[in-house]
Amino acid sequence: TVPSGSGKSTLAETVLYRHFARKFGDLDAGPAGEATISGGEHITSAVLVDQSPLGRTARGNTATYTKAWDRIRQIFAKQATTQGSRLEAKHFSFNVAGGRCETCSGEGFETVEMQFLADVQLLCPVCQGKRFREEVLAIHYRDKTVADVLAMTVDEASTLFAEDPATVKALQPARAVGLGYVQLGQPLSTLSGGEAQRLKLARALSEKAKNTLFVIDEPSAGLHSSDAEHVITALHDLVKEGASVVVVEHDLDV
Q1: Which of 192, 198, 208 lies closest to 176 in space, CA to CA?
Q2: Is the pTM of the predicted complex or chain greater than 0.85?
Q3: How far from 11 is each of 121, 177, 190, CA to CA, in Å?
Q4: In Å, what is the CA distance from 186 to each residue of 21, 43, 152?
Q5: Tell me: the pLDDT tens digits for 226-238?
C-alpha cells in the first residue's frame, strides 16, 4: 500500500499477473511489463481479481456465476419428474428455448426502440417478468417456483436448500465475502464494482487454491469496514489452502 500513482497496479497487474498468465498460456491477459521474476516455480496458475464489470447483459446473474444454478436446476428437474412432467434441467434456464418465455425470449420485458429517446422496457405481457413458460412455473420445490428462487437472496436460498449440501457449498463462498444480501437473479451488469470484485473472489474460493497466485486490486474499495473484514478472512482462507495472495490496497487497516 503506497500513494496513488506510485505504480501499485502496474507492478501487481501488468508485471506480476501478466507474467504468469502468459506463462500459462493466457495471451488475452495482454503484454507483460519487462521484469525478471524469480521464485515462481511452485505457481501453476494465476488469477486477477479486479473491479472490472462481470457482464453487460441481463443473461448472467449471481446464481449462474457461482454455478449454484446448475445444481438448483437439477433439483427442479427431479421435482418435475416426481410431478409427472417431462421437463429436464435445461428447461429451468431462461437462456434456453423450451423453458424460457418465448414472447420476451427470457428477458422478462420487451424493449421498444425509440428513434430519438432512450429505449423503453415494458413488462412482458405473457410471463409478467417471470421469464419462464407456465409449464416451468408450475413446478414447485417447497412451494417455491424457479422464478421465486431467483428473487431470493443468497442467504434465503441457502436456507431453502439447506438439506442439499451441493447447493449450500456453491453459495457459501458468496456468503463468506459478505454477499448474502444479493439476489440470485440479480444481473451481473447491475452489481457495483466492489460487489463484482467480491463475487470474483467468491468464485476463486470455490476453486482449487493450492499453488495459485491471486492478484487482487483494492478489495476494500467502496466497502464498509465490516464488509472488509469478510474479504480479509476470505484472503486468509486462500492462503491456508496453499495459495499466494498479492493485494494492492489504499486502506492501511486491510
Answers
A1: 198
A2: no
A3: 44, 26, 30
A4: 30, 34, 10
A5: 778 888 888 998 9
C-alpha 39, offset from chain centre: 32
Q: Are 195 and 223 in contact (CB under 8 A)?
A: no
Judge contact between 56 and 189, C-beta under 8 A. Answer: yes
3-state helix, strand, coil in the chain (%, to 5): 40, 15, 45
* Strand-strand pairing, 212-217 and 45-49: parallel
Band of residue 58 on the pLDDT scale cut at 50, 70, 90: low
Burial group, residue 164, by CB count within 10 angstroms (0-12, 13-18, 19+) = middle
Between β-strands 120-123 and 109-112, what pairing exists: parallel, antiparallel or unpaired? antiparallel
| H-helix or E-strand spanning residue 100 | none
Cell of 201: 473472489
